[in-house]
Design a protein that fits this description.
The complex is a heterodimer of chains A (243) and B (324).
Chain A lengths: L1 E10 L2 E11 L4 E5 L6 H9 L6 E6 L2 E2 L5 H6 L2 E4 L11 H8 L7 H14 L1 H5 L10 H13 L5 E5 L7 H16 L3 E6 L2 H7 L2 E6 L2 E7 H6 L1 H8 L5 H4 L1
Parallel strand pairs in A: 3-8, 3-9, 6-7, 7-8
Antiparallel strand pairs in A: 1-2, 1-4, 4-5, 9-10
Helix pairs in contact in A: 3-6
Chain B lengths: L2 H21 L8 H23 L8 H17 L5 H25 L4 H19 L1 H4 L12 E2 L2 E2 L3 H23 L2 H11 L1 H6 L4 H27 L9 H14 L4 H18 L7 H15 L4 H16 L5
Antiparallel strand pairs in B: 1-2
Helix pairs in contact in B: 2-7, 2-10, 2-11, 2-12, 3-4, 3-5, 3-10, 4-5, 4-10, 11-12, 11-13
The chains are: A alpha/beta (243), B mainly alpha (324).
């Protein structure tokens, strides 16, 4: 569904992606793990059109989308849930959702129906639909950020660090949501520092280090991989995920 | 609109309507009506600028230049070509809009503070043109013989009449800007302000929205310039130099960028400071402005309006125990 071929992107003067290649098949969750500064966010921003790659190509459903404007990318069905949630704090929950449907802004009925369906699905957001988004808890904000992206009706979701800054139980809930999104037929590229959680729900995974993909494989395979265990899983982080 | 929101607005309108009558009987302050005419004219500039600064997150250092474009367009079209002032006004605004668009499109495609730099240069260029195009602008010695304004066939002559005319414009600009902020465009602007990357990823054409706000601010500044021209009926380039652009920015910052009321309050406050209370400092005036900016940035970074709101709401809270 999505194929990235030897992509080079500069972030300012930093050569952040040094020839990254990966692919995501339809209906998969693919996890992209790696330390801070490995280039994970640069990669999703390149896909979403927020950064312009210098070299290489991004193919989506056999179409070259390299260097397209963000608007054009989201119109093709790729939506981004940005790192740190990036909700619109001084807008209401409903207004946040409406902004997510920006490309559908002239289809009012559709936006209304989609919003009702999402509020049905996440009752906590319905309760708070008139509240300012900044007053929500971290987990609720993440739910809102995901819902906001869904308002664009994407087939492909880019999730950038959805577990960031959340309590373990909340992370569980968010990952359950992500799995359900896949089961409904959406395709997901999941960026995570929380490697264990990500690889447990992922069909396949890639490991990035300093702008390159250094490892790839099935989720379980990578979980069991000695290097991955040493570098990203560590000891003492098991309790929650093995419980 | 509920009472708590409406009451302050009604009080403000009543106060503004009564203002000329309140100051008229006192010789020492009767000229405050004149100061308020200038303050109102500047408010038009700063209302537009506050949208640009507070909601598009960009600084323009060319508002005095747009102010000048409006002023000179009105002066030349009415004085030289005998246009009706009410026809010259939109012509000047259209010119300012076109120029803002040309300056804004390349500057706002770039991220960061390129607009501030581009407008800084542009402001200087306009000032030089006003000084050098002697044939059209009268150069440094200025333009005279600019006609006044008539409304429905009646000449606007007295300061009080001007006061009501100008503040009607301000009220219209406030109402219009309020609706812009609460429209879909305004919501997108606030979204951009909150989380630019997220808004961009959703397909909001961020640069285009910023250009629109910049053009809107230039149009308001140009209208203000036209009013200014017909009020003072005499122009020199020194009213449109960089220092004035900085002063407009300062007015917005002092009042509070995130609020239209902030622009009004900061403008009235600094107009009085500049026109009334700073003469003693003469050339050191600039130092005082610097001091005010520093004090605001350090003590009340949100601006006077937010600071006052907080003071008021805190007092209300201590007086009335929470009902929760």
């Amino acid at each position: 569904m999505l194929t990235v071929r030897s992509l080079h992107t500069y972030y300012g003067n930093i050569h952040a992606l040094k020839g990254v290649s990966l692919h995501v098949r339809s209906g998969e969750i693919v996890a992209l793990i790696g330390a801070n500064g490995a280039g994970k966010t640069t990669l999703v921003h390149s896909i979403a059109g927020l950064l312009r790659p210098q070299k290489g190509s991004i193919l989506y459903k056999e179409e070259d989308i390299t260097g397209l404007a963000p608007e054009a990318v989201v119109e093709r069905g790729i939506a981004l849930v940005p790192e740190g949630r990036q909700i619109f704090a001084t807008l209401s929950v409903e207004a946040n959702l409406e902004m997510g449907a920006f490309i559908h802004r002239n289809r009012r009925d559709q936006v209304r129906r989609d919003m009702d369906a999402l509020l049905e699905r996440f009752p906590i957001l319905r309760e708070r639909r008139r509240q300012l988004a900044g007053t929500l808890s971290g987990g609720e904000q993440q739910m809102l950020a995901i819902s906001r992206a869904l308002m664009a009706r994407p087939e492909f979701l880019l999730l950038d660090e959805p577990s960031m800054g959340l309590a373990p139980l909340v992370i569980r809930e968010i990952f359950a949501i992500i799995r359900r999104l896949r089961d409904e037929g959406r395709t997901i590229l999941l960026i995570e520092q929380n490697a264990r959680a990500a690889l447990q729900i992922a069909d396949r995974g890639y490991v990035m280090e300093t702008g390159k993909v250094v490892l790839q494989g099935e989720g379980r395979e990578l979980l069991a991989h000695r290097e991955v265990q040493r570098a990203y899983l560590g000891k003492g982080s098991k309790e929650i995920w093995d419980a | 609109m509920n009472l708590r929101k409406f009451a302050p607005v009604a009080a403000f309108v009543a106060f503004m309507a009564a203002f000329p009558w309140m100051v008229a009987p006192f010789d020492a302050i009767s000229h405050y009506t004149d100061v308020m005419v200038f303050a109102g004219i500047f408010c038009l500039v700063t209302i537009g600028l506050s949208l640009l600064m507070g909601f598009a997150g960009q600084i323009s250092l060319a508002q005095a230049a747009f102010f000048g474009i409006g002023a000179y367009a009105s002066a030349i079209l009415t004085g030289r070509f005998g246009w009706n002032p009410w026809a010259a006004m939109p012509a000047g605004a259209a010119a300012a809009a076109a120029v803002a668009w040309i300056v804004g499109v390349p500057a706002l495609r770039l991220k960061g503070h390129y607009l501030a730099m581009a407008t800084l240069g542009f402001g200087v260029i306009v000032h030089i043109v006003l000084n050098e195009e002697v044939e059209w602008t009268g150069g440094p010695s200025g333009m005279v013989d600019i006609p006044g304004l008539s409304v429905a066939g009646v000449r606007v002559l007295s300061e009080t009449a001007w006061y009501y005319l100008v503040w009607t414009f301000v009220a219209a600009a406030l109402i219009f800007s309020y609706h812009v902020l609460h429209s879909r465009v305004g919501r997108a602007l606030r979204a951009i302000h909150e989380a630019e990357k997220a808004a961009e990823a959703m397909g909001v054409p961020v640069a285009s929205y910023k250009v629109q706000v910049f053009v809107y601010s230039a149009v308001l500044a140009s209208l203000a310039g036209s009013l200014y021209t017909h009020y003072v009926t005499f122009l020199t380039p020194s009213s449109f130099d960089l220092m004035w652009s900085v002063r407009f920015v300062l007015m917005v910052v002092v009042g509070g960028m995130q609020s239209l009321w902030g622009a009004v309050l900061g403008t009235v406050f600094l107009t009085f400071v500049g026109n009334e209370w700073l003469h003693v400092f003469a050339d050191f005036e600039v130092l005082v402005y610097g001091g005010i900016l520093l004090a605001v940035a350090l003590l009340v970074p949100q601006g006077l309006v937010v600071w006052m709101q907080e003071k008021l709401s805190r007092r209300r809270e201590t007086l009335l125990p929470r009902s929760e």
